[in-house]
């Protein structure tokens, strides 16, 4: 840990250190998003949701889109339509809660897909992925 921190503080590793920080920030946001969405699941959605991981959450980062500041949300190209629809439904439930809305940034949907590749998964999780990717 100390050695990695020292290496990342060196000028020739600054780019790598920035990429590591950005990746950690994105994973942290994805984890919080997954946990928030799990908190509003209804009983009939639990069976389908089982197995969803942070790798299946949209990419979000600070920014602005059309002169509006917030979190830029990039949908995943490899996520199944059924899972995307459920995530959208869960997000709407979250945003209907005033407590959630006050403490979270505005989410700005854009059509640009992230350059992420699908995570490795077994056949039991195929329902979460599109077959066209």
Q: Secondary structure elements and their pairing?
A:
Elements: H1 2-9, H2 14-39, H3 46-49, E1 59-65, E2 68-74, H4 81-96, H5 98-103, E3 107-109
Our count of helices gives 5
Unreliable residue stretches: none
The number of distinct structural domains comes to 1
Percent helix range: 40-55%
- Which sequence of SSEs, written as H and E, runs from N to C? HHHEEHHE
Pfam families: DUF4616
InterPro entries: DUF4616
Structure, explained:
- This protein has 133 residues and is of the alpha+beta class.
- The chain has one domain (30-128).
- It has helices spanning 2-9, 14-39, 46-49, 81-96, 98-103, and strands at 59-65, 68-74, 107-109.
- The chain has a 3-stranded mixed beta sheet with strand order 1-2-3.
- The longest helix has 26 residues, at 14-39.
- The mean pLDDT is 83.
- Pfam families: DUF4616 (PF15394).
- InterPro entries: DUF4616.
Key terms:
133 residues, alpha+beta, three-stranded mixed beta sheet, 5 helices, 3 strands, 45% helix, globular, DUF4616
Task: Give a short synopsis of this structure.
It is built from 5 helices and 3 strands.
